[in-house]
Amino acid sequence: MELDDDFVISVSDLSIVYRGRAKKLIGRGKIREVKALNKISFHIKKGELVAVLGKNGSGKTTLLGAIGGYFRPESGTVNTRGRVYTLKGANPGLVPHLSPRENIRMMSQIYGVSNQEREEFEKQVEEFCDLGEAYDRDFSSLSTGMAGRVGFGFTTSLTPEILLMDETLGVGDVEFRKKAEKKAMEFMEKGETILLSTHSLNLAKTMCQRGLVLDKGELVFDGPSEDAVDYYLKEIIK
To answer: How far apart are CA 167 and CA 207, in angstroms?
Structure first.
């Protein structure tokens, strides 16, 4: 299916199946199948900020991975328009024994930031991180909040048109979360699109206009974020 002009993400009848060999004594060696997503369909317009809600194992991470191009569908389709970047937790693949400065320099080359733009790009990330001397310490020595600033600052400075965040705004310290939420809102104001998988129901209601609720690999609710939170509490958590 081709994307309608109004949409930047289109998911139609998407099913994802995980396969692996059984390790238990009985049935060892047999191929086991787990349907992670089952016939999911929805469309997202440019500029929407959408929360993805569900218990652990409901399929949230798999859904974002499929939209980001990391999983091949068993059936159905995923179509996107624009640059798509995924940030899982707060680390887009930074190397522990390198400093944030060295990591950003290396990752900017990997992600194709041009030579002409690299200096300004690196400056922008450093200003967002605001780590002082810690910016030149090993990444592995940073606290969770400090590390979160580096990962989030790098990914968002790549100027994605579609940003997929898997529990990113729930990690780190209060200061990091405030900075990250502010930058996410700036994204939305520029007309970019965000999918935010989160366990924070308050975050889903305050930041997002819309909510998708997943349960056992199925999309069970799609509507305004406050209604999505109410549905999740009443029908899923109970």
So the answer is: 14
